[in-house]
Amino acid sequence: MAVFTPLNDAQVSGFLERFDVGSLDTFEGVASGTENTTYFVTTDRQSLVLTLFEQGEHDELPFFVDLLDYLAEHRLPVPGPVHDRQGIALQSLAGKPALLFPRLPGKSPKQPNLAQCEALGDALGRMHFIAQRFEGHRPNPRDLHWLLATHHQVLGYLSPEDQALMGDEIDTYQGAFENADSLPQGAIHGDLFRDNTLFDGDRLGGIIDFYNGCTGDLLFDLAIVINDWASDTDGSLNRERHDALLRAYLARRPLTASERQCWPLMLRMTALRYWLSRLLVVYVDPPAHELTPHDPEQFRTILVRRIAEGALPLPG
């Protein structure tokens, strides 16, 4: 159960009194979280999500609040945080930073269909187009510089072949990206896996969990999405899901010539990003709570496929 800070009725009721959201009916812990404590809260007026932040840099939370406010104001399907009666969103509860959100409809798709891929591509394209004008800034904590600085921590746990694979890939990225024309930048989600979306049938109810959000290459964000949403279990790209998602995305935000040139390598770099981050959790920096880490092998498999097969042609 991913409820690391237990709350009682009196605490939740008192917290809700700060907002114009109604009186507490029920609340229950949410088991799906991995880093923060989450509760579903029902009042006599609406359904809400209460999040207490257990880890991370708390001084970065205003960036996430501002980003979600900005995207919600532009009618993106994101949970804009609820502000209290004084207009303040970021609160404290049980000694932890806390935010209250509207509960969005739907559930996360395990096997997204083509209509869901199209809906996600359309929303991501709109988000990236709008996010280029967002004035907040947070450096990408998982970019090429992080790969270069961090990968040596896991090399001792890898076979000689995998050590060479990781080292050669990072050398390739350095040569390609550090000499490439600058890529379009903006606010990105940074972790838009299918479990960070909610669908009500084929309708996208919401994009959630922006706590890896940052300022970075829009192409980086898109590559993360394609590697998760359009990959089959053997790591290969599924052309139908790939094309449905990208066709909708490109209709909202066409790629530049530099982005098209960098696209195959960006797919590889984001695959390595998750292979490395998952290896770090397994061998170097296990989670603070008793949670099962994600399998690093999934993204090693995707990386090897991208190296061997390259990228599929971009639609249109």
TrEMBL record:
GO biological process: threonine biosynthetic process
Pathway: Amino-acid biosynthesis; L-threonine biosynthesis; L-threonine from L-aspartate: step 4/5
Domain Aminoglycoside phosphotransferase positions: 27-255
Enzyme class: transferase
Reaction(s) catalysed (UniProt annotation): L-homoserine + ATP = O-phospho-L-homoserine + ADP + H(+)
Kinase recorded as keyword: yes
Single GO MF descriptor: ATP binding
EC numbers, comma separated: 2.7.1.39
SUPFAM superfamilies reported in the protein's UniProt record: Protein kinase-like (PK-like)
Protein family: Belongs to the pseudomonas-type ThrB family.
Protein name in UniProt: Homoserine kinase
